[in-house]
Amino acid sequence: MAGLVWVVHRLTFLFVACCLGFISFSVEAAIKRYQFDVQVQNISRLCHAKPIVTVNGKFPGPTIYVQEGDRVLVNVTNHAQYNMSIHWHGLKQYRNGWADGPAYITQCPIQRGNSYTYDFNVTGQRGTLWWHAHILWLRATVYGAIVILPKQGTPYPFPQPNGEFEILLGEWWNNDVEAVVNQGSRMGVPPNMSDAHTINGKPGPLFPCSEKHTFAMEVEAGKTYLLRIINAALNDELFFAIAGHNMTVVEVDAVYTKPFTTQAILIAPGQTTNVLLQANQAPNRYFMASRSFMDVPIPVDNKTATGILQYRGIPNTILPILPQLPASNDTSFALSYNKKLKSLNSPQYPANVPLEVDRKLFYTIGLGQNDCPTCLNGTQLVASLNNISFVMPQIGLLQSHYFNISGVFRTDFPDRPPTPFNYTGAPLTANLRTAVGTRLSKIAFNSTVELVLQDTNLLTVESHPFHLHGYNFFVVGTGIGNFNPAKDPAKYNLVDPVERNTVGVPTGGWTAIRFRADNPGVWFMHCHLEVHTGWGLKTAFVVEDGPGKDQSILPPPKDLPPC
C-alpha cells in the first residue's frame, strides 16, 4: 500500500532527547514549555473534507514529553470560533485546580483571541496520560498524549523496551461534530454516532479513501516495544489487538500493574494502557485493530479501525493479517480482563489503599426522560446521579468556592439515592421526575472516601466509564446486580487493587472505589461517555482546605480567563 504514513521505531531516550532538544536537562526539575495554538484546519477522511479544530494544525495534537518532577507550562492561544479549555487527564494538580481545565468547573473558557498558560507540576506520577479539550464535544479532534518518563536513573519495573509508540484510539464524524450534537439536543435524542473509529487519527484501509490514512509502525524482529495506548474516543469502549501477537499489560492510567499477558485489551474512554509487545513472530505485515464493546442493544459505531505493524524489510505489497478481536458483546472477556488488573504493590510502588473509611457514598447512575414540548417525542433524554441531573454553572465552580461567591452551587448532593429500589431489575420506564441542579458534595480534607457507583435499569442498563479529576482511586470491588452492603465489602481487594483515574462500571452492576481526599479544591466527576456527560451524568466534590500551610488551594494565576 503506497503512501502509508510511516513511523519508524526509535530508542526512547534518543527520541525524547530529539523532541526536547531545545530544553536543558539538569539534575533539578526542568521547566518544559509548550505553545498550543488552537486553530481550524481542513482535514480529509473517508472521502470527506471538513474544517476541524486542532492544536498546532495537527490531528491528533502534539505529544507532551516530560519527566517526573518537571514543571510544565503550556500556553494555549485560541484562534478558533469556539471557546476552549484543555484538561490534562490524570494529572493530579495538587492544590492547583486552576490548571485542571474543565470549562465552568475550574475555569471559564479561553475566548477567541485570548491565551491562558496552564502551569503545573508533575509530581509522583510517571507513565502515559493524555490531554483533551474539556468543553462541548471539541475533544473529538482536540487531544494528544502525555508521556511522563521516570526520574533520571529510575528504571521501569519491567524489561527496558527497545522502542515505543503512542497509539491514540479515536472517532471521526464526516459532518461537523458540534452541528451533530446540537441537532440531537434540539430533538431530545442521542446525536448521530461517528462514521469511523481511528488509530492515531487514521481509520485504516477497511474504509474508503483511506489507503494514505493508515497508521503504520515498523518493528525489528527480536525487539520489544512499549505501546502507550489511549482511548480518546468520545462514546465507545474499545477492544484493541494485534494479529499474531500477545501483549503484556504493565501499566494503566500511569500506574504500574502486575504484568499479565493477553491477546486483546479492553479500554474505556479516558483510560490509558501500556503494553509490552515482542516482535517475535514471522516477519510479515500484521493488522492492529480497534472495535467497540457494547453488551446491550444500544446502537454504537461498530466499524473496525485498523493500522499496520510491519516488520522491517517486508514489502508493502504483502496483505496484512487481521487479528481475532473479542465479539462486540463479549461480557465475559470484559469482566475477566478487568479482574486481572492489579496494582504492582511493590516496596517502591506501594498500593496505599485506605483500610478505614470516614465517608461512605452510594451513587446510582440513571437515564431518564424529562418533558420537552419542542423535542421530537415531547421528551428529552437526561442522565443523573442519585436522580439529579447536573446543570453547568455560568462561572467556574472553583472561582465561586475560592472567592465565596454565593448562589452558584449548593453542597447538598445526597450521599445515597433519595428512594431505594431494585436498581438492576426489570427495565423502569416511568418518569422519575429527575431533579436538575448544580449540587456538589463537600468532603473533609484528608478524609477517606468509599464511593459505590451503581448502574440501574432506568430505561436501560449500560456500562459507564467514570473519571474523577484531581485524584487516583483504588478499585476495591465490582460485581453484577445490586450492591449488597452487608455481603459485598467482605469480598473487596484491599491488598493490591488496581489504581486508576477512570473506571468502568459494568453493565447492570456496580463498582466500589476508595481514595483519600488530600487534594483541596473543586474536582469534577463524570461519565466519560460524552453523550451522557452532556445529558447531566456528572457532579463535583468540594474538598475543603486542610489546616497546614501547604494544604489549601493555591491563589489563582493572574491570566486566569475571565467569566
From TrEMBL:
<dbReference type="InterPro" id="IPR017761">
    <property type="entry name" value="Laccase"/>
</dbReference>
<feature type="domain" description="Plastocyanin-like">
    <location>
        <begin position="166"/>
        <end position="313"/>
    </location>
</feature>
<dbReference type="InterPro" id="IPR045087">
    <property type="entry name" value="Cu-oxidase_fam"/>
</dbReference>
<keyword id="KW-0052">Apoplast</keyword>
<dbReference type="InterPro" id="IPR034289">
    <property type="entry name" value="CuRO_3_LCC"/>
</dbReference>
<dbReference type="GO" id="GO:0005507">
    <property type="term" value="F:copper ion binding"/>
</dbReference>
<dbReference type="GO" id="GO:0048046">
    <property type="term" value="C:apoplast"/>
</dbReference>
<keyword id="KW-0964">Secreted</keyword>
<feature type="domain" description="Plastocyanin-like">
    <location>
        <begin position="38"/>
        <end position="152"/>
    </location>
</feature>
<dbReference type="GO" id="GO:0046274">
    <property type="term" value="P:lignin catabolic process"/>
</dbReference>
<comment type="function">
    <text>Lignin degradation and detoxification of lignin-derived products.</text>
</comment>
<keyword id="KW-0479">Metal-binding</keyword>
<dbReference type="GO" id="GO:0052716">
    <property type="term" value="F:hydroquinone:oxygen oxidoreductase activity"/>
</dbReference>
<dbReference type="Pfam" id="PF00394">
    <property type="entry name" value="Cu-oxidase"/>
</dbReference>
<dbReference type="InterPro" id="IPR011707">
    <property type="entry name" value="Cu-oxidase-like_N"/>
</dbReference>
<keyword id="KW-0325">Glycoprotein</keyword>
<dbReference type="InterPro" id="IPR033138">
    <property type="entry name" value="Cu_oxidase_CS"/>
</dbReference>
<dbReference type="InterPro" id="IPR008972">
    <property type="entry name" value="Cupredoxin"/>
</dbReference>
<dbReference type="InterPro" id="IPR034285">
    <property type="entry name" value="CuRO_2_LCC"/>
</dbReference>
<dbReference type="InterPro" id="IPR011706">
    <property type="entry name" value="Cu-oxidase_C"/>
</dbReference>
<dbReference type="InterPro" id="IPR002355">
    <property type="entry name" value="Cu_oxidase_Cu_BS"/>
</dbReference>
<feature type="domain" description="Plastocyanin-like">
    <location>
        <begin position="412"/>
        <end position="545"/>
    </location>
</feature>
<dbReference type="Pfam" id="PF07732">
    <property type="entry name" value="Cu-oxidase_3"/>
</dbReference>
<dbReference type="Pfam" id="PF07731">
    <property type="entry name" value="Cu-oxidase_2"/>
</dbReference>
<comment type="similarity">
    <text>Belongs to the multicopper oxidase family.</text>
</comment>
<keyword id="KW-0439">Lignin degradation</keyword>
<keyword id="KW-0677">Repeat</keyword>
<keyword id="KW-0186">Copper</keyword>
<dbReference type="InterPro" id="IPR034288">
    <property type="entry name" value="CuRO_1_LCC"/>
</dbReference>
<keyword id="KW-0560">Oxidoreductase</keyword>
<protein>
    <recommendedName>
        <fullName>Laccase</fullName>
        <ecNumber>1.10.3.2</ecNumber>
    </recommendedName>
</protein>
<dbReference type="InterPro" id="IPR001117">
    <property type="entry name" value="Cu-oxidase_2nd"/>
</dbReference>
